[in-house]
Design a protein that fits this description.
The N and C termini lie far apart (42 Å). This protein has 177 residues and is mainly alpha-helical. α1 packs antiparallel against α2 (20-35), α2 (20-35) crosses α5 (107-133) and α3 packs across α4. The longest helix has 44 residues, at 58-101. Helix content is 85%, strand content 0%.
Amino acid sequence: MILLNLFWSFFKIGFLAFGGGYGALSLIQDQIVNVNKWIGIEEFLTLISISQMTPGPIAINSATFIGYRIAGIQGSILATIGVVLPSVFWIFLILKILKILSKWIDTAEVFNALRLGIIALILSATLRIGIESINSVFTIVTAVSAFYILYKFKLSVIWIVFGTGILGVFWSFFLPL
């Protein structure tokens, strides 16, 4: 039963997740933390960090990790298939619809409208995760500093992730609360 639940939960995420992994974060959090309670919010935030550092899309990495954690290799395979399968359906459906509609409407406008919806999903995920991640003065200072450095010096995000990771390790080992 757990295998079916894993597949179905990630199938729903894949079916409704537009805008890639960042657009799916709210859905992933809702399904694995709030609805199914497979992991807590702290472990979810760690999962997001690991999913961003490993190669591949966030939704697929999350599905693979959660599936493995809940039901081993079978769970990992079913959760990953569940999150990927709807994309195949959407691609075929959208291509078919666009082929039909392109005779009557400007499809560029359709994609502009979709982009706005995707931006809303990404902002929603950013706010939800950001609010739950900020739990001390250290995290606030680190976040503000990272944004400032990104904006002012136009550094690669890789350096920001690396630097904040090193800072977090330093803080946890040498300056514990």
